[in-house]
Amino acid sequence: MDDNKMLEELLEKQAAGELKAKMRYEIPAQDMPVQDGTVRRSNVSEVALGYTELQARLEAMRCLQCKTAPCMKGCPVKIRIRDFVSAIADGDYGKSLAIIKENSLLPAVCGRVCPQEVQCQETCTVGLKFKDVEKSVSIGRLERFVADWGRGEGGVPQVAPETGKKVAVVGAGPGGIVVAADIRRAGHDVTLFEAFHKPGGVLVYGIPEFRLPKAIVAEEIEVLDKMGVKIVCNFIVGRTRTIEELMAEDGFDAVYVGVGAGLPSFMGIDGEQLVGVYSANEYLTRANLMKAYDFGKGADTPIAMSKKVAVLGGGNVAMDSARTAVRLGAEKVYLVYRRSEIEMPARVEEVHHAKEEGVEFCTLQNPKRIIGTEDGMVKSLECLKYELGEPDDSGRRRPIPIEGSEFILDVDTVIVAIGNGANPLIGQTTPGLELNKWGNIIVDDKCKTSLDGVYAGGDIVLGAATVILAMGQGRIAAAAINEFLAE
Amino acid sequence: MQHKILCKEQLSENVFRIEVEAALIARARKPGQFVIVGVADEYSERIPLTIAGAHPDKGTIELIFQRVGKSTAEMADMNEGDSLGYIVGPLGQPTHVAKVGTVVCVGGGIGNAPLLPIATAMKEAGNKIISIIGARDKGLIILEKEFAAISDELIVVTDDGSYGRKGLVTEPLAEICESVKPDLAIVIGPTIMMKFCCKTTEPFGVHTLVSLNTIMVDGTGMCGGCRVEVGGETKFVCVDGPEFDGHKVDFDQMMRRLGAYKVQEQKALEEYKHKCRFGLKNNE
Ligand SMILES: Cc1cc2nc3c(=O)[nH]c(=O)nc-3n(C[C@H](O)[C@H](O)[C@H](O)COP(=O)(O)OP(=O)(O)OC[C@H]3O[C@@H](n4cnc5c(N)ncnc54)[C@H](O)[C@@H]3O)c2cc1C
Ligand code: SF4
Ligand code: FES
């Protein structure tokens, strides 16, 4: 049967109150249209193309409209998922978007980058019924669909009359963007300070264009601008001005710190100082923010012209690095990960896309040392094979090295994607700000720090987390700041 | 924020000094700190440059740079009244300025620029300052007058003997270590020079600070591109430095890392020169 017809019949049945759960289960799960795997190896355009309207409505029809909406419990910001999905099924996209925006200010971003399979889609009844999370209602794709439908039409949120109170938001990542919007809406004067020459945080320097088009981030920033948020780039709080100076001398009544993660971790193995060894942060920043893929064609920031690359790690950052290396022309890209594929923290979609693009997965292997040429360039990577033992504290089976299993991977570039420490700058320059032993800022349940008027959230508090968690904390902090300023 | 160039001066064949607007940085900066400059826009490379001086009253800072690659060539082609794309800073840990006694300050080539504000601050803190400044030849000696003004003793050396004493800075440095037994040495210059100065002071047990100029991207501790090995530990120059105990720095590794993009940099510079020659620069 043709899909249009199928939708029509389903809608008729639904209107007549005759649409049974069984019929909903029979609707085929809609696949995401994607750019061809070979073609996209040589471009940086977005890989996932987005549902068509018909696909979105069919996918939305798969939702059972559960009374308890278990999906919502899996959502860190408690979006009314059942209701926005049902509005899509009805073809009322405006209503659907409005429902999402009650809780999430960046749906076009979250619809693309949230790890839905361990959040809302993990608890979705449909997925549970099929015992396969991939069969859950594709909540993320639906979120993206309505967000894209509403792109450029959202208008500018209403801003309350000026209160005369001033707030500094430090760091223009997803957390900072949300805080700036929520506080500005309450009529406070907001300045968003960003260290880089461009706002967006990880959304612009880390997550690549092929996964999150930068135009989307730019639109969100533009909305802030139209709301009257002052955006000041090239301003490093702690260096250009300290938090103390902002509050005592520059008249800021409150500060939100959302400076994200910093200090990339290295393996601590031999050879990490060789030319050709990058932290994923550096590699991705060069490629994304600094546009190194256009080196010599307008952009001035170089990046290694790699032929064979090894990426160390198994998270989203590792996938992004590997897939970026493919696009920069590497002939062979290995992803070296200590555990097995099921344990990989990366989103399944990214793993799947990376494989399609030819990234070679070397699981249960761990690097031992990086071997260099005489003049200090990366020549190869010595790895050790592992097997899985008993589960460890995290519940994942512990990888155990197999004695004598060393082997050599021939590579010229090594990208280390094993996580970050905390950004040390704010801690070093803000007396009285309490940090935990890893250097993350300590906050209470309203995201307030040990200093009055100073709030924090996102990766600088949580360690490397997710966009949605940074956003969620941002909303909590913004509400608390608005309350604090109303006193 | 505007970063208009108010004053430009050529100090030697390839070395320029500019005074540029950057009010907040002028106010906040301390000796030893640096900035990151994007010459034009988001396509520009981010290049770290030490702050050679600041005028908080005028809201300006001084930058001294050497024309080596495309970005610095572009900067050298800018004139008074032109504006730099962006300047961010001040970055890095300021020099720990204290009275220690006698300080020997060794500057090589362009290294004199970052050295001067540090030497000046050390002088103001009540130290005796012996400065050794060196370059390949006479034309490349910069800031001699300024060093003369703040030094108790100034020794100028050139490789070819065209000015001052003939030889390398390590020679007078060794003599001073022997005779004066300075309490501190501060050495800033080409990596190879810093390496050999540290080798010179080490046997005398003279504590030696160096200021490292690695490749950088963000300058906030996020990327790790600026990392060096100091005493067997990985340090990030932009947040842990730029000054380190020179006796612990692995200079050989640092030199290799500095050369990581040699090929690309050379190509970019050639292309830029080519465009300038054909007057294409402004209508790409
Ligand atoms: C490559 C990569 C891929 C990822 N993929 C995903 C994904 O698919 N899904 C997901 O949910 N999460 C993903 N994450 C994690 C997610 O991006 C972060 O959790 C999230 O961006 C954190 O937001 P934030 O607001 O805390 O800070 P950030 O996004 O880190 O932004 C902080 C900003 O503060 C600025 N800053 C730092 N110091 C200062 C200072 N002193 N003064 C002024 N400004 C300062 C920084 O320049 C930066 O712009 C990924 C991360 C990376 C690196
Ligand atoms: S759990 Fe799944 S089926 Fe139930 S309401 Fe949520 S999205 Fe729909
Ligand atoms: S320049 Fe990026 S961490 Fe130092």
CATH architecture of the largest domain in chain B: 3-Layer(aba) Sandwich
Give the H and E element order of chain B. EEHEEEHEEHEHEEHEHEEEHEHH
Which percent range describes the beta-strand content of chain A?
A: 15-25%
Write the CATH architecture name of the largest domain in chain A.
3-Layer(bba) Sandwich
Helicity of chain B, as a percent range: 25-40%
Radius of gyration of chain B: 18 Å
Strand order of the largest sheet of chain A: 3-2-1-4-16
Fold-level CATH name of the largest domain in chain A? FAD/NAD(P)-binding domain
CATH class of the largest domain in chain A: Alpha Beta
Small-molecule binders: flavin-adenine dinucleotide, iron/sulfur cluster, FE2/S2 (inorganic) cluster
Overall geometry of chain B: globular
Query: What is the number of independent domains of chain A?
Result: 3
